[in-house]
Amino acid sequence: MPQSLTTSTVTKILGTIPLVLLGAIGYGNLFAQGQPQPRPTPGPQSSLNASAPQVIDDLPASYAAGLDASTKTLVDKGRYVARQGDCVACHTGDKSKPLAGGLALTTPFGKLYSTNITPDPKTGIGRYSFEQFERVMRKGVASDGHNLYPAMPYPSYAKMSTDDLKALYAYLMKGVKPVEQANLPLGMSFPFNQRWGIALWNWAFLDEKPFESNPQQSAQWNRGAYIVQGAGHCGACHTPRGIGFQEKAMSEAGPKGIYYLAGETVENWRALSLRGLWTPEETAEMLKTGRNRHGAVAGNMVDVVQHSTQYFTDSDLLAIGIYLKSLPPSEYDKPMQVAPNPTLAIAPPARQGPIARAANVPVDLYTSRGGLGYLQFCNDCHRSDGAGVAGVFPPLSDNPALQQDNPATFVHIMLTGSKSAQTQTYARVLTMPSFSRLSNEEIAEIGNFVRKSWGRSESKPITTEVVADMRKELDVKKIDNRKFETPRLANMLKESNAPQLVQGARLNLETRDLLPHNVGNALNCTSCHLNAGTVADGSPYVGVSAFFPSYAPRSGRVITLADRINGCFLRSMNGKALPVDSAEMKAMIAYFDWMKRETKPEDKVEGRGVGKIDTKLIPNVANGKQIYTNQCALCHGKDGEGIQNAGRWIYPPLWGDQSFNIGAGMARTYTAAAFVKRNMPIAFHDNFPLGQGGLTDQEAVDVAEYFTHMPRPDFAAKAKDWPKDKKPFDARY
Predict the structure, then answer these.
(1) What average pLDDT does the segment 54-75 reach?
(2) 38 pLDDT exceeds 50?
């Protein structure tokens, strides 16, 4: 079962922010001005990131030549059974050698390595008879008589039918290419390396009886029970373990059945209770796509969905959901299932107007360290109301990973990051990067805020000691050595003018809502100044105020920071200037000044601005359009229209009436490309803190040329631009 339901669901993490860009503050003359430069031959017509992501099926289909129709049918059935057992996930260490074993499996007693199950006669199972194969599947005894450790879930496989085992045997022998690769030795110390002890374990705990249908239940229920208890071996992770490390129950039946699928902790992931899980349809959706309205899979469950459950028939997925839904709550559930709020029969009308606010925004979002930490590092993906982004980033409200006392899954993801499952429904893998750069205290603060806001408020608080212990146990390494240190919004609360600083941060994050008369389109300041203006190379505010007053080529005069801010309202937000003496302007300037610290005008601040792109690169607009379709449209819409939720903008449009007009530097191809290169797309890989970047220089130029030259509102005052300086060669007007 999904360790999303099970292992973890806070896939939190991943931030996606608009591709629109205000550019680098005060960097109007970032590139050389003057005569057009000589242009070389255009680059390639297409590139890697212009291609749509492809789902790769790693389960072998190397069918032997000359199979007759009935044998091929049997092999096909066996391949489906191998799907149900997720054989490829555990028995593949080197992806170039599927099913050849070698994958390390961590247990409380040491490491095991999965074995070679290809039909190689020397190192695999090529010499196994069906009887020997059936014995290893039902009893965990290899062909030479040695016992396997129950990390190979033969206690579950024992429930499989003989017909399914014959089909699986046919597939492994005639549908898989032999690979000669010796099995690795045990990584266990005495006495756990003594295999004879497993015989005693089997005597005490192994039930070899195959699955028996329950005549009191429907055919669908029995099919779901058969898959879950047998080939699916869901209990191996989701059922509590006893004193002998055995599963306390192998089904829902009998006096111990109350333990079955009630949840367990596996490799520092919390495999949650599957009893009474959601609706059958929601469970089926999670197993097929890796996501549903409650969250997304994470941890080991990503492999389960990618390699196994996404390929199940819809009827089998629904049968699994029906079976799990039928299991009554257990006092041993981890966590106890929390019933979701009932759906209203008649939904209330959506509030209209720019100041409509989401109902579930925590009251202490701006007044607590955990709230400000969440706002800075989580809000861009999971939103201020915890609703996430439909089809992109998982919600936190009703998220199973937050409904439990044990914070293992949340802390694990924060420290190591997470990737979404690549499925045929969602081929684009989204990455939540590791937040190991945050201190133990910061992770605990954010975790406690999230759990209190959208999880179980009565849960035991996460302590810094819990985070520190898991950091040590997971052997978390620092994800990068960059000197740029992201300013922490939470530290504003220590300042004497904290209310004013918080107001400045809020004006940057909610510009359109708080200043509806000054913003004429869908933008907020943080549409471009990512993470409240704190991301390196994303036009951060760090040190900005130290550089003003400053000469601005566009105006041909020295301007103040207030002038520069108003330039954004006019040129980027298609709006009206703020009164210089207003409380809002003073709050924004105070916010900038707070980030200035000891910066002097002559200082070079790492990460400030957006960097540079080679202006000799020739844009390829056709390739840029493909890149936009495959890497940008997820957040900015197929036609650059942006994403809305209930009439509120989440990610703004990149062209059209509600987009930016000229924008600070975005009217220039190479300024836009520099921003894109270092900050887009979001959730592309594990760069801190947004998984940002990943395109090549050429790709960034291509897509920048494409979206910056699309139709958008004009700015009539542009006619007065560059009064004393030559217009940059790459300006679009």
Answers:
(1) 93
(2) no
Contact 397, 451 (CB under 8 A): no
**Of residues 451, 470, 453, the one with CA closest to residue 461:** 451
Residues ≥6 apart with Cβ < 8 Å to 569: 518, 519, 575, 576, 577, 578
Question: Which residues have C-beta within 8 Å of that of residue 219, sequence separation ≥ 6?
Answer: none
Segment 544-602, tens digit of pLDDT: 999 999 999 888 999 999 999 999 999 999 999 999 999 999 999 999 999 998 899 89
Query: What pLDDT digit, counting tens, does each position of 369-380 carry?
Result: 999 999 999 999
C-alpha separations of 554 from 30, 251, 513, 557, 671 in Å:
12, 73, 29, 8, 15
- Angstrom distances, CA of residue 60 to CA of 82, 177, 353, 493: 10, 8, 55, 57
Residues 6+ apart with CB under 8 A from 374: 365, 446, 449, 450
How far is Cα 156 from Cα 228, in angstroms, rounded to an integer? 9
Q: How far is CA 285 from CA 128, 335, 671, in A?
A: 38, 21, 42
pLDDT digits (tens, 9 = 90+) for 283-326: 999 999 999 988 888 888 999 999 999 999 999 999 999 999 99
Q: For residue 352, is pLDDT > 60?
A: no
Q: Looking at the predicted structure, is the pLDDT value of residue 40 above 50?
A: no
Report the Cα 81 to chain-centroid distance in Å. 29
Dihedral-angle region of residue 539 (phi above 0 means left; psi in -120 to 50 means alpha; beta otherwise): left
Q: Which residues are paired to 643 by β-bridges?
A: 651
Which residues does 637 contact at the CB level (< 8 Å), separation at least 6?
Answer: 643, 653
Element (H, E) at 107: strand 104-107
pTM for the model stands at: 0.83
How far apart (Å, rounded) are the C-alpha atoms in residues 120 and 99? 11
Strands 643-645 and 648-651: what pairing? antiparallel
CA gap 374, 362 in Å, rounded: 11
Peptide bond into 191 cis (omega under 30): yes
CA nearest 645: which of 432, 383, 372, 340?
Answer: 383
Instruction: Estimate the crossing angle of helix 314-326 against helix 280-289, to 10 degrees.
Output: 130
Q: For 228-255, what is each residue's pLDDT tens digit? A: 999 999 999 999 999 888 999 999 999 9
Confidence band of 648 (pLDDT split at 50, 70, 90): confident
Calculate mean pLDDT across residues 415-421. Answer: 93
- Extract the tokens encoding 196: 């004879």
Mean residue pLDDT across the chain: 87
- Asked if 75 contacts 67 with a C-beta cutoff of 8 angstroms, the reply is yes
Q: How confident is the model at residue 661 (pLDDT cuts 50, 70, 90)?
A: confident
User: Terminal CA-to-CA distance of the chain, rounded, Å?
Assistant: 56
Q: For residue 731, with 0-12 CB atoms within 10 Å meaning exposed, 13-18 middle and 19 or more buried, which class applies? A: middle
